[in-house]
Design a protein that fits this description.
Mean pLDDT: 91
Order of helices and strands: EEEEEEEEE
Distance between the termini: 16 Å
Number of helices: 0
Low-confidence stretches: none
Helix content: under 10%
Number of strands: 9
Strand content: over 45%
CATH architecture: Sandwich
Oligomer: single chain
């Protein structure tokens, strides 16, 4: 499985391949990442998961999103970091996905 964290670099995968988007996060602040994508082209395989960088309570880590490609073409994954109760995201990252 390939890992991607830079939206400036297009994700190039083949049909049926799985890949992971990995983003820095500190969920104890209330901010989490949410993935918006075209489910006819790619599929989120499992719910996001958090992998801590430290054993300290409230520490930072990575939020991981595992996807699998379902059809050829180009699509985008829009990642938004925000608190559930706020309307405006703190940060948005758009990943271009090219499926061959």
């Amino acid at each position: 499985m390939s890992f991607y964290n830079d939206p400036e670099i297009p994700i190039k995968v083949i049909l049926g391949q799985t890949f992971t988007i990995s983003l820095e996060s500190i969920p104890s602040t209330g901010y989490t990442w949410e993935a918006n994508y075209d489910s006819t082209v790619i599929e989120l395989l499992k719910p996001q998961r958090f992998v801590p960088n430290t054993s300290a309570v409230g520490g930072s880590g990575l939020e991981l999103f595992d996807f699998q490609t379902k059809q050829h073409g180009k699509t985008q994954i829009k990642m938004k970091m925000q608190r559930e109760w706020e309307e405006t995201p703190k940060e948005v990252k758009i990943f271009e996905v090219h499926i061959e």
